[in-house]
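step=encode ok
step=design start
structure_in=
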């Protein structure tokens, strides 16, 4: 099965990334992608855009050259209480909130503290997806996290870039996918692209889940309808323009 929705990428607004929105759209169209989400890093990362970048995403058209656009953020987990660097005004203009661990915002802790912080973030009503939860720098109690993610309608991401940039993620991601399957939750595929050429690349994600017989209907990227239904569980917002891309 092809997955034609990419929910995790960074534009030049995050200065360690290298492509514009228009470049992403051009590559996405050439690959037949239907929807992409612009998810630049939250401010705590250090080289991230000003909060106005997130508020002003409302000016981005819903569809550009046939490619649907979701307005998002990859926010940073800030503490054990699950606070993130996405305030209410930012959130009001966004369709999608990913949240994850990044060293400059919250240094790695022991497994119990990492788990506490991640579960608290899962309980944060703004959050839709936890990014790269398989990062070996932040060990977690996977079963506890998967149970919480199911309970609070949060998807756990299988991050394609982690298999390259976060060495040692493979086994963690495999365990996460299995735990999510066992507990009836959802996963998300994300390329975590920092340059447009890799948008929509889920090759490692698909190889990982193939032996697990993971139900495709529980991968939120599987269709526009299932994705928008999943997002509406938190926001109760509808984005009808994207249903027929």
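sequence_out=
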């Amino acid at each position: 099965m092809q997955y034609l929705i990419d929910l995790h990428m960074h534009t030049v607004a995050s200065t360690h990334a290298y492509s514009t929105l228009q470049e992403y759209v051009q590559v996405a169209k050439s690959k037949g992608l239907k929807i992409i989400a612009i998810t630049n890093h939250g401010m705590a990362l250090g080289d991230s855009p000003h909060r106005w970048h997130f508020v002003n995403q409302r000016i981005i058209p819903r569809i550009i050259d046939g490619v649907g656009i979701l307005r998002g953020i990859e926010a940073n987990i800030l503490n054990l209480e699950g606070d993130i660097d996405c305030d209410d005004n930012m959130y009001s203009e966004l369709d999608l909130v990913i949240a994850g661990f990044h060293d400059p915002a919250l240094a790695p802790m022991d497994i119990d503290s990492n788990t506490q912080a991640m579960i608290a973030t899962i309980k944060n009503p703004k959050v839709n997806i936890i990014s790269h939860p398989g990062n070996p720098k932040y060990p977690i109690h996977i079963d506890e996290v998967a149970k919480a993610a199911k309970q609070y309608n949060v998807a756990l991401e299988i991050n394609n870039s982690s298999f390259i940039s976060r060495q040692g993620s493979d086994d963690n991601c495999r365990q996460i996918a299995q735990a999510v399957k066992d507990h009836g939750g959802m996963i998300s595929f994300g390329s975590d692209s920092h340059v447009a050429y890799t948008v929509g690349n889920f090759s490692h994600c698909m190889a990982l889940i193939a032996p697990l017989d993971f139900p495709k209907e529980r991968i939120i990227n599987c269709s526009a309808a299932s994705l928008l239904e999943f997002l509406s569980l938190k926001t109760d917002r509808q984005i009808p323009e994207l249903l027929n891309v």
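step=design ok
step=annotate ok -> The chain has a mean pLDDT of 96.
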